[in-house]
Amino acid sequence: MSDPEVLIVGAGPAGADLAWRLARAGTPVLLIDRLPDLRQAAFSSAALPWSAVEHHGLPESVIAARWQGWQLLGPGGQRRHWRAPHTLGAVLDFGALRCWLAERAAAAGAVVELDSTAEHWQPDGEGARVQLRDGTGQRRLLQPRWLVDATGQQRALLGDPPAAAHPLVSGVGVEWLLQVDAQLWGKWADQLSFMLGSDWVPQGYGWVFPMGPGVLKLGICRLTDAAHPQPPLQGLLQQLQRRLGLEGAAVLDRHGGLVRSSIRRREPHQRGPLLGLGDAVSTANLLGGEGIRHALSSSAVLAPLLLRALQGDGRCLRHYPAQLRRRLGWRWSLSGRLAQRTWLGLRSAAADRRLARLLGGLEACSADDLSALLFEYRFERYGLRALPYALGWR
Asked: How far apart are CA 55 and CA 183, in angstroms?
């Protein structure tokens, strides 16, 4: 193809959604990804509220399971349950989601190239000069007007923000897909289950989510802490598997990944013709490791601004960071502070007791209320039950 107006590097949810939005507006777009198959390396807990499924028009083909309840195990041996009479959300097949988003972009007119990498770039006149390399080692130069880094936490083109001014908080996760019998699957179906407390996962949390019939998703995530030794994730996951009675299950897939975000989200979003998108500008929320919804939000914010820039109003892009902050909401920084306080501090019996008090205060909430708290970060709805904890008052 001739030089595209926009080159998007990274065909995750943010990049593929932006390619679709631009292509359907008539913009020549090239979307590339280093993976030869978008079903590979599909690490994501991929749990969404049902409102997000409807808002983004996600098809049945990307939905692995629906859920209508919450189960929280811990700290210690405590178990708490919340259940609604209706569907609260879905667990997605992340690989299927990426494929559907890329196919939708291609159907709108975007060119999609897999097994392709942007090796380096530099500003060039009114745009950028980018060297691509495909899976066979062949290289070529392109000169797009705008270049978008949608490579996630790697920030392959944008680079990390200055650490002193915009420190990144990192989390690492490991996830297994387990094959189980129908009886065992039924114990975990229709609900999201989380394991909380330092005796389950120090400085993090574990989860069991239902996938298709007979398949469960078992995972752990924790924030990295250079100041304290942390046990190997593999051992923690095996321990979690044993404690939950899942040790006999066949492992269908193993994958893992990193989450890196700043708390305040004030890092640069643009370097000349290069724009950051999705996790490359810290849209992954650290409280629950959520990225999909917020990555799609960044695409929805950037697309109309980029279309205006293509028409000659390049100055409008200076509004991109502020507009994205407004879209994510004022609760964003509060949820990040809560993530740091909760997960990094969760390494002692005293921390377990604080968390138990918070969870005890939420027992009277409905399942819908809990979804609003965990997905919309509506801490203020719970007054003295949650907000003082979030602000570090107790």
From this structure: 34
In terms of pTM, does the model score above 0.70? yes
CA atoms within 13 A on the CB side of 186: 3
Q: What is the DSSP letter of 162?
A: P
6-42+95-161+263-328 belongs to CATH 3.40.640.10: no
Residue listed under structure tokens 């083909």: 61
Q: Is 169 left (phi over 0), alpha (psi -120 to 50) or beta?
A: beta
- Cα distances (angstroms) measured from residue 33 to each of 105, 167, 188, 377: 13, 27, 35, 32
Fold of 65-90+166-261: D-Amino Acid Oxidase; Chain A, domain 2 (3.30.9)
Name the 3-class secondary structure at 44: coil
Q: How far apart are CA 133 and CA 273, in angstroms?
A: 20
Q: Is 84 exposed, middle or buried (0-12, 13-18, 19+ CB in 10 A)?
A: middle
pLDDT tens-digit map of 37-50: 999 876 677 899 99
Q: What is the pLDDT of residues 39-86, one digit of tens each?
A: 987 667 789 999 999 999 999 999 999 999 999 999 988 999 999 999
In the chain, where does the domain assigned CATH 3.50.50.60 lie? 6-42+95-161+263-328
Residue 204 near residue 223 (C-beta atoms within 8 A): yes
